[in-house]
């Protein structure tokens, strides 16, 4: 909580007056943070990150025992070939011959797409892997190279392994696609609900002609149970209200026989948020009336558009007479995920971690500011680039009175500073010789020749000292 208040203060935000919602991932500590934040700023709407929720959903689907075992075995294959320089190179050559352009990806639980990338990369390499382990050299060491590990060969040649890889892709891939769609900056709460419902529909309509086994049906049943459980947790009253406020989904969102999805429930949620925002009784009464007419598709709420936020903003009606317009625009403006801050944390993990350095956050922040300042200063002072050697160089300026005046201004105290163009005119590259017509390449070659000669002299002197020490040792032994 203190970190959030400090960050808001540094951004110049007073009392979080411009904050409409707070979105975080959903562990216990973040739930507590959202509760404390809302207790202090009562108008703020707390939300769990939708992308994190979908990632949890995919993870629970893949906890099905056979699917989990297949993922672990796939990870073992990737680990072996990524760690083996020789066999990793052989697999790349075989994959290239089979026109497989993607590489093997390893699973990482903290990354949203890592699991599906793992199984898809393994599936794409099925033929190259099978061809590679079928070679005799893969089973026994030869020419100084080790063989492929026996457990890796057993996994690749296991007939039950590859069907489970395909099943994981068929079940989990639609929900991973939803993560990619919902982490957009333009995504809103209604889009998140629609995309999740679309992925659930794909799960219900899976074609089982290619795999109508008891194993796949059991896995599908497990996935449906996980989706139902996670949907009940993720679809909060605010999310359900946002789906109702999508002009093309107002009828679909109302299910009179299901608690939480009735028109009465949507009106209740709307009025609760209006109370949080401090709306007056007159505005709340108009808002309740607008909800009723909007649900019935009556004027002025006819029509609709795929872009829900754009449709509400384009309505040419008075906000004072119909406050539902301003209310819907505010709800649909909420960002349903924390994807951008997660990308920032991932980028910082590459530099700010115990393996990289042990600097404190404040010290690291100061160093970053110093570095940025130095980079900008270097850009400002950088000379203009010289023209290519193929172009005809302009003749050097003659030593005139103006030139001597420039030199005097450079060396004299309390003189007028040189302009930028004057500084660049007088600047001389450090590797160029005194002769203005001398090529800079010859200057570089001269420096390297001098360096080589110095190293040769040092090598000769070192060998001479070694011979002297050796002869002295033999002389003492003879004595």
- In N-to-C order, the SSE pattern is HEHEHHHHHHHHHHHHHHHHHHH
What is the terminal-to-terminal distance? 83 Å
**Average predicted local confidence, pLDDT:** 82
Given the helix and strand composition, which structural class is it? mainly alpha
Give the percentage of residues in beta strands: under 5%
Helix content: 55-70%
Oligomer: single chain
Beta strand count: 2
Over the alpha carbons, how many angstroms does the gyration radius reach? 35 Å
Morphology:
flat
Main β sheet profile: 2 strands, parallel
Q: Which strand order does the major sheet show?
A: 1-2
User: How many helices?
Assistant: 21
Low-pLDDT runs of 5+ residues are 391-441
Subcellular location: Nucleus
Region (Disordered): 378-422
Biased composition (Low complexity): 399-408
GO molecular function, one term: zinc ion binding
Your description of this structure?
This is DUF659 domain-containing protein. It is found in: Nucleus. InterPro entries: RNaseH-like_sf (IPR012337), ZnF_BED_domain_contain (IPR052035). The chain is mostly helical. Among the domains are: 1-48; 55-234, no CATH class; 242-347, no CATH class. The chain contains 21 helices and 2 strands. Strands 1-2 form a two-stranded parallel ribbon. Strand 1, helix 2 (28-40) and strand 2 (45-48) form a beta-alpha-beta unit. Helix 4 (65-83) packs across helix 6. The longest helix is centred in the C-terminal third of the chain and has 39 residues, at 440-478. It is flat, with a radius of gyration of 35 Å. The termini are far apart.
């Amino acid at each position: 909580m203190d970190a959030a208040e400090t960050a808001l203060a540094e951004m110049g935000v007073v009392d979080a007056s411009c904050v409409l919602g707070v979105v975080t991932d959903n562990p216990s500590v973040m739930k507590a943070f959202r509760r404390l934040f809302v207790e202090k700023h009562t108008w703020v709407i707390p939300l769990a990150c939708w992308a994190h929720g979908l990632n949890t959903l995919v993870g629970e689907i893949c906890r099905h025992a056979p699917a989990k075992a297949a993922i672990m075995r796939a990870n073992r294959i990737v680990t072996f070939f990524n760690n083996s320089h020789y066999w990793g190179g052989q697999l790349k050559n075989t994959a290239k011959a089979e026109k497989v352009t993607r590489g093997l990806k390893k699973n990482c639980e903290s990354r949203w797409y890592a699991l599906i990338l793992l199984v898809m990369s393994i599936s794409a390499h099925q033929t190259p892997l099978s061809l590679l382990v079928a070679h005799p050299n893969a089973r026994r060491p030869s020419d100084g190279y080790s063989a492929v590990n026996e457990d890796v060969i057993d996994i690749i040649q296991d007939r039950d392994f590859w069907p489970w890889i395909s099943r994981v892709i068929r079940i989990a891939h639609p929900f991973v696609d939803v993560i990619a769609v919902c982490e957009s900056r333009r995504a809103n709460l209604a889009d998140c609900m629609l995309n999740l419902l679309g992925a659930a529909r794909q799960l219900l309509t899976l074609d089982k002609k290619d795999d109508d086994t008891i194993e796949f049906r059991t896995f599908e049943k497990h996935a449906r149970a996980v989706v139902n459980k996670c949907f009940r947790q993720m679809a909060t009253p605010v999310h359900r209200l946002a789906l109702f406020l999508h002009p093309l989904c107002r009828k679909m969102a109302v299910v009179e026989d299901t608690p939480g999805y009735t028109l009465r429930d949507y009106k209740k949620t709307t009025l609760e948020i209006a109370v949080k925002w401090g709306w007056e009784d007159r505005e709340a009464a108009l808002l309740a009336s607008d909800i009723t007419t909007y649900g019935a598709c009556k004027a002025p709420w006819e029509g609709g558009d795929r872009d829900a936020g754009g449709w509400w903003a384009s309505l040419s009606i008075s906000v004072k007479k119909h406050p539902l317009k301003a209310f819907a625009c505010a709800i649909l403006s909420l960002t349903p995920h924390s994807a951008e801050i997660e990308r920032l944390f991932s980028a910082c993990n590459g530099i700010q971690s115990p393996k990289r350095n042990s600097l404190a956050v404040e010290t690291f922040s100061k160093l970053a500011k110093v570095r940025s300042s130095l980079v900008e200063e270097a850009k400002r002072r950088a000379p203009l680039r010289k023209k290519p050697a193929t172009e005809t160089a302009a003749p050097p300026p003659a030593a005139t009175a103006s030139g001597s005046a420039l030199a005097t201004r450079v060396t004299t105290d309390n003189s007028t500073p040189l302009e930028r163009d004057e500084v660049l005119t007088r600047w001389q590259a450090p590797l160029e010789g005194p002769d203005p017509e001398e090529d800079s390449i010859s200057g570089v070659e001269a420096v390297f020749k001098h360096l080589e000669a110095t190293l040769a002299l040092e090598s000769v002197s070192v060998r001479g000292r070694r011979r002297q020490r050796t002869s002295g040792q033999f002389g003492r032994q003879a004595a």
